[in-house]
What does this fold into?
Amino acid sequence: MSVTAQLCDTIVATTYASLSPAAIAAARRLVLDGLAITLAGTEEETIQILAEHYRGFGARGDATAIGFGFRTAPMLAAALNGAAMHVLDFEPMWFPSNHALSTTLPAILALAETRDVSGQDLIAALVKGVEIQGWVRHAGHLYETGGVRFHPPALVGPMGSAVAAGHVLGLSSGQLANALGIASSRCGGMAANIGTMTKSTHCGHAAMLGLESAMLAARGFTGNPEPFEAFNGYGRMMFGESFQPEDMLNFGPPFRIIEPGYAVKMFPSQFGTHFAITAGMTLHPQVPDPARIRAVRLKTPVMQYVNRPHPETGLAGKFSLQYTFANGLLRGGAKIDTFTDDRVRDADMAALLDKIAIEMSPEIPARFDRMWVEAWVELDDGTVLHTRCNGPKGIWGSPPISEEDHLVKVRDCLSRRLPTDRAEALIALARRVETLDPAGVREMIALAG
It folds into this structure.
């Protein structure tokens, strides 16, 4: 049997009963996080433009455009909701680096409104969609984040969405192999668009195109059923000679949702900037007056896509080590409202950015699990403050974000679009999602919609 055939047999045989209580709990938290950040994301101009774009299609209203009060075709809902889930850069981070939630959960939710999808089905589909993305990234042996040719969720997200949707649709092993073959021709997104409106569509389109691939396969549509090992297929074309398809046969317990797991984001920005924010927060209480700062030096990994000395927009600020460090130093953290055009242009921010020099050192691994950021702040009396951040709160290898801290994030996000009673009802359902019947899942989606 080919690797893809063996893999698909394993995927199809994986059910809710295959999951440990820890895997179920980890997936449950993802559902709540995903719904909350989607609603907060709908306030962004990017998503408002996309909503009007998709509303104009006039598609049959089978699925909810979360936060916008209209319904559309499942594929379009997956595209819009996936983009909204990602636009704030607030979704959990995975290793190897990827956005595995916004590329997977929106496809499941879109199907759940027209099919009987229980909470257990939703959880199993989500775990499987996350799992395949992690093993594809692992098989590619590309762990550095500074030199990727493609934005990871656009590279592997359609595969995750196809697997998740395939679970909901009940695809056979052969149908799933075709779905992955179809999805393999829908992968890729330019890293050059990081920091632009287009970036969030990488995730939305991944959710949409994987969903389409599974729906087509369910109808008997075919693709190359061996995309991972074909000499001119997905593995070699996207990852090069480093791709080892046999690695994906590790699919299964304890599942990557548990090992290595994910890092819940507590700041709405690119994950590498969380090191800079944390470093700035550490030094914040030690600076008596920002006007006394003479110079700042940052030492970071080589990550040129987040080397933005003077971002011109709040969106670009999410991908600036300099801006995020400066905000941590000046404000003691970072919130959704940190990344606005007005904040980027504040006088105190502009003054501090002019004083920051950055050294991107090849000696520091450009991997989220191994990198660090150092900072030196020189004051006007010659005092030099120093810190080194080996990782933000909740990073792999450290205690996870607590339930209480996570709920602070969730409630803040939901409060931007929902009244308190409706937000609390949504939280209550999501926190027991695995117990919901199909009507309960639809009720949860309706509360978000």
Remarks:
- The chain has 18 helices and eight strands.
- The mean pLDDT is 96.
- The chain has two domains: 3-266+401-448, 271-389.
- The first strand starts at residue 63 and ends at 65.
